[in-house]
Design a protein that fits this description.
single chain; 8-stranded mixed beta sheet; alpha/beta; Rossmann fold; 8 strands
Length: 254
């Protein structure tokens, strides 16, 4: 799983759209009060709490200790654990596994799917959304291009995300044993908070692994260049937008 470091206060304050958009996914999950549900990549726990309020029994896991500490502080009635999604360890099986805006951080998708499959009961469902093919291409291609111009080494192996097509991901699901009943790929331009500096905040929060070898003074110059290059497409009426593309899928264990 990604070793991305997280500022949980900044995440909650400036990037709450991650959880807010996840509320749409909760409608697809449609939790029931007699269900046992696992939230993979729970972050600071907001969506897990929504599931808890539905009456279902919810357990949250995240690879980030910082996120889990924050989630436990915010929602002490829910069990949150630091755990790798590639190696889920539970003595009970779940009626459903839920994941929002997480799986693009894990570059071994089949291993994750096998792990999810193993903790689902028969007929249990997997409901998830994450970055799909082309996600944030304008921003990320500009960041990478400017890194290269400044003579920083880069190759595709250093790209820290997994953004598959529907065909690629649903084929992996079927190989593992899932029956895929729903799959969609869609554009979701996402408004970034803080007029004028929203893109800068976004890069600081989410692109750390990609630019971890870049010197601070060079990073400032890269961000300035990125803003100039994508402004005509992503800056509207004083606000920055990220060019998100998402995948949503539902699969059942058979």
């Amino acid at each position: 799983m990604s070793n991305q470091k997280w500022d949980t206060k900044l995440y909650d304050k400036k990037h709450s759209f991650v959880s807010e958009y996840g509320n749409e996914l909760l409608n697809l999950l449609s939790p029931r009060d007699d269900e046992n549900i696992l939230d993979i990549g729970c972050g600071t726990g907001d969506l897990a709490n929504e599931i808890y309020l539905s009456g279902a029994k919810i357990t949250g896991i995240d690879a980030s200790e910082e996120m889990v500490i924050s989630a436990n502080e915010k929602y002490p009635n829910i069990n949150f654990y630091v755990m790798d999604a590639k190696n889920l360890k539970f003595s009970t099986q779940f009626n459903a596994v839920f994941s929002n805006a997480v799986l693009h951080w894990i570059k071994s998708p089949k291993q994750v799917l096998k792990s999810v499959y193993s903790v689902l009961e028969s007929e249990g469902r997997f409901v998830c959304e994450f970055g799909g093919k082309g996600n944030c291409d304008m921003i990320l291609n500009s960041v990478i291009g400017n890194m290269k111009k400044m003579n920083y080494d880069y190759d595709d192996d250093k790209f820290p995300w997994y953004f598959p097509s529907i065909g690629e991901y649903t084929s992996l699901m079927e190989e593992v044993g899932f029956q895929v009943t729903y799959a969609t790929h869609f554009d979701r331009p996402t408004k970034l908070l803080d007029k004028g500096i929203g893109l800068r905040n976004w890069i600081s929060m989410f692109v750390g692994n990609l630019v971890k070898e870049v010197k601070e003074r060079d990073l400032e110059m890269i961000i300035d260049n990125v803003e100039s290059e994508v402004e005509h497409k992503l800056f509207q009426n004083g606000d920055w937008y990220a060019d998100y593309k998402r995948i949503r899928v539902i699969g059942y264990k058979k």
